[in-house]
Amino acid sequence: MTAATSETVTTGGDGPAERRPLMTGTALLMMNLGFFGVQFSFGLTQSAVNPLFLLIGADPDQLPILNLAGPVTGLLIQPLIGAISDRTWSPRWGRRRPFITAGAILCAVILFVFPFVGILWVAVICFWLLDAGNNTSMEPYRAFISDRLPKSQLARGFLTQSMFTGAGAVLANLSLFLLQKVTALEKTAGNGVPYWMYVCFMIGTVCILLTVLTAMARTKELTPSDEELAEIRSAPKGLHHAIVEIKDAVKAMPIAMHKIGVVFLFQWYAMFIYWQFLAVSLGETVFNASPEQGGPAWDDAIAWSGLQNAAYNFVTMISALFLVGFAQRLGAKRVHAIALGLAAVALVWLARIDNQYVALVPMIGLGIFWASAVGVPYLMVASMVPAKRTGVYMGILNMMIVVPMLIETVTFGWIFNHWLDSKGSNAMTLAGVLLGIGALAMLWVNPPDEADESPIVPLGSKRSITVYDRVVVGSDGTPTSLYAVDRAAEVAQAAQAKLVVVTAYRDDDGPGPEYAEGMHRDLRGVEAAREALEKSVTGLTRERARYIEQRLVAGDPAQALLDTVGVNPANLIVVGNRGLGASQGQLLGSVPAGVVRNAVCDVLVVQTSALDEDRMFAARPADATADSDRARPADPEGTPASG
């Protein structure tokens, strides 16, 4: 058969991702290295900032409102930075790297200054700036992974991110525990902050600068195509247009993201309670200490809370190795519901433990949950939204996180005083109950339609067909070939597989040879092929177009289909039984017969000869043309790839 050369034309977000080069394991680790430093900074905000507030004069019931910085900066900064970075490109600096680097530098400066602060309102300002830096780095960094990796490596990329996230948090929290044991650092500075806490923040300064700057220097962003660059340059700039972009993205948001938001309402309200009141709860139940009393026992409670957080983040590192695999087999919905249930049991149990070593055991359940929380939702979103809008959708996902936190900051102080008897252990119990409600909400949510399912990590719906990775169909734009394309799209949708539409043509534009009736007729010239290919995908729905690849192939039609599927038996070729030289009375035309004879994968033969042609061709403007077509025993135009 004639060898075929191909030109790939992409549609939606899936095609460009398939063109991205594979990354080596070392390069993938280097790209994610910066998450270690960013998470070290975030780990200090989780474990050290609230005890620092208490050390310089804050009351426990003030902690929720003092933590207003996190949700507000996340709500405002992350979606805006995501939308702006989607519209940014610099040949020297790239798209996401300027934002990641700027946020890391701001974090490093504030981490260095923070422990020297002795006035509560100044500490609150530093906290706002630190969270602003964290948020400026975090979402562009997640979008950077989605931009850089092909879909085949996306799960591994987010898995690696979860591992570095856990490692950074482990070191941040271990440093709080271990440095507190160093005798030389036990003394307290004039502002009431112990010197061991100074050292923790200095380590964080070095970590975030070293890891983020190294990762950004060693990992280059992919240059957008000419079409993508033109779209970026023509897109309106400025804060107003970024807000409009967020609004439009919310309107077009996949239904699965709305369902994630319902669960996040309970999940993140509970986790904010946990981070704020862990030390207070341990002080009550384990160390018989309180922030009002202070002293060595309260310092021990602070240090042990750091060890608790280090323990669950260590479990996160390990469980992240397996969690994505479970999500692919069981569905992300079920896996995340189980993880939420484990965390609920862990926190309710933790509030009733009076031994500091036994208190480490519930951190296993919390660590499994955290591995799911920081990886699975982002992977689902990255696989279900258009690639060119990844940044803004990652920001919107973060809005779903920070809104419950914002509600917590303005409501929980009153709840803590009036409903929970101002006890940290009661706050921990409530956090566990809310996580349990989140688990039930995850199970209560109806599975999405198959059209909304992720092709990488299933969200939990039943799949009609599970055996195909790609469905390949050919078309020359004729009515019978369009029917075959439509059937192929239905199969691809049911299988959550990529649909590849192939149009084959001959290179020369001159008049072709004379064809006898019943013989296959080729498309001649690339422009005619482009027109036929465009016509072939016009009728497909927007949801299907997210997973479509279009191919123009110069060469033999049957060989074009065979070359497209290669030697992968998990593919499917869809061909029509007529229109490829099948004259009246023949079972198969020349192209489908050649495909059936040589394919290594399944071949679906669509009965196009049994179509109701009165209905199919009634749309033609000239009735005479329609009558003429109906009189023919076979379509003389032929279908170069599908029939």
Q: What is the mean pLDDT?
A: 80
Percent in strands = 5-15%
Indicate the structural class: mainly alpha
Low-confidence stretches: 1-18, 515-519, 579-586, 612-643
Ends distance: 18 Å
Strand order of the largest sheet: 1-4-3-2-5-6
C-alpha-based Rg, rounded: 29 Å
Would you count the extended β strands for me?
6
Number of helices: 26
For the largest beta-sheet, the strand count, sense and barrel status come to: 6 strands, mixed
Query: How much helix is in the residues?
Result: 55-70%
Q: What is the general shape?
A: elongated
Descriptive account of the structure:
By secondary structure, the chain is mainly alpha-helical. 62% of the residues lie in helices and 6% in strands. The protein has 26 helices and six strands. A six-stranded mixed beta sheet has the order 1-4-3-2-5-6, with helices on both faces. Helix 23 (557-565) runs parallel beside helix 24 (590-598). The radius of gyration is 29 Å and the shape is elongated. The chain starts with a strand and ends in a 12-residue tail after the last helix. The model is unreliable at 1-18, 515-519, 579-586 and 612-643 (pLDDT under 50).
